Each structure stands twice: as C-alpha cells, then as structure tokens.
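Q: Focus on the chain.
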Amino acid sequence: MIYHTNNTNDNFVSGSVPIPSKRVYNFWKNMETNTVQDIFNYNVVDEYINDYVNWIKADKLNKLSGLENFPWHSYSSGTTESFTNFTSRYGKRCFRFFKGEYMFQKLNARNNNYMWMHLDEGPVYDNDAVIISLPFSDFGTVHPRLNTVLEQCNERNVPVLIDCAYMCIAKNIEFDFNQPCIDTVTFSLSKGFWGIDKLRLGIRFQREDRDDNLDIYNKWKTLPLHSIAIGRKFIQEFETNWLWNDYGGKYQQICDANNLTPTNSILHALGGEQYKDWNRGTSVNRVCVSNALGDIDE
C-alpha cells in the first residue's frame, strides 16, 4: 500500500495507525529470519521479555518509575490479551474508564455482559475496577484526572490496569507505578513500528505470578515464537525513542501548517471544528497524522 506524504488533510485519519516509515520498511525487507529455527527456539520468550523490559527502562524522553515493583513479566498478545485477563479476573466488578478511552474497553464490557460506567459520570466506588491509558488515548498526554482517580482507587482498594500501549510513541510523560491500587501494567509495540501490529507483540507487568491462562501460555511456550523472535529483532535494532528522534521535527511542521495542537504522542494531534465528526466523546478532536509523517514513497 502506498501512502501519500504531502501535508494535506487527506493524510489525516480518525484512528490510530503506525507511521509508514521507510526505515521500518527497509528493516522488514532486509531482515534475516529462519522460521523453523524460531519456532523451536523456546528461549526466545524469555529473551524477548528481558530485552523488552530493558528497552522500556532505556526510555530517555519519559520518566517512568516503580516498574521494579512488578517483577512478574509475561508475553501478551498486544495489550488486548492483558485487558481480557484483567476483566475476566474482576468480572463481577463494574469496569470504569474515561470517555475517549480505547474503544475495546466498551466493546469488551458490552459483549461479555460486564457492568461498566464512564469515570466522567461519578467517583470510584468500592466494587469498581479501573482501566486507564497512559498516555491517555484521546488526549495524547496524561489524563488530567488520573491522579485523582488513583487516589480514590488506593483509598477503596480498587484494582487498576494501566494501559501503556501508546508509551512507545510518547514523550514528556512522568509517572510512578508504585501505587497499591495498580494491579496490572501492559505495553505494546504495535503503534511504534509499521506492520508489526499484525504480530500482536506486547508485555504484561504484574506484582506476582497469578498462574492465569496468559501465564500458563508463557510457561508452556505455546506462543507465536516466530513473531516474538521478529519483535525482539525490532527492539534490538530501534532505540526506545526513535520515533521522536526521527520524526519530531516533521511532526511539529505538520501541526503548524495545519493549525493542529501537538500532543505528547507523535501519532496524534488535536484538531478544530472541521474534525468534529471524529470526536470520541471528550472536549477534543483527536487527529492521527501518521500518514502525513510517513516517508515510504519519498
């Protein structure tokens, strides 16, 4: 698929897609892989997890602390598998998330007949379970009510999942994960690399081994080992903050030229009234500028 790269509104979309990067494309094209060798390399799961944890720690544009309090790490199929395990574990609670959150949360609750309610509609209650993206999906930065919600969750012993799927595209995010209410933290590579979203590569951080189905799959190595081996190659090749380092200047130019407000997530900017049809229920209109940033056909 060819992406246009001139800075016109036709290049903006309402969703969230990786940047069509020439550097990523060339890495795909020149990558040396051995499917048979990878499929029978059961060590690759631990190698991937170890490299991924170190990749997150190497982040120089965000200040994340407290992850050492979540020493149990598991491969997750993107962040989605971590979501479904969290909601299954707390299925008798009411799931809470903000308006503008990743749409999967509402679909998952609806399709599984879970109770759910927007955090915008009231305080946290004792029987809740909370899911929050960091950076927040619709704003591209920390949700302004994040700390208030976490304080309420700490007071009421309400479990929280922090969704860091967008952390690989973020800068200037400061957060301490070492809070009693935080139950699960999950990251994904999907938004960081063009095409890698098809491989479903993520990681889950927990305080202990719960021996749930995700942990069992990890222990038995009944996982997509070839995909995991490819994910490890990307982690080894690309520095943690490569997107901002490579495309940060162009991102600012695109925002300036199109009267968009920059965010802390390089795929997203905030647009005006002409983007109101893309509104996700909040005070902003999120615009995905990935295609305008792309350089695949330059």
Q: What stands out?
A: The chain has a mean pLDDT of 94. The first helix runs from residue 22 to 30. The chain has ten helices and twelve strands.
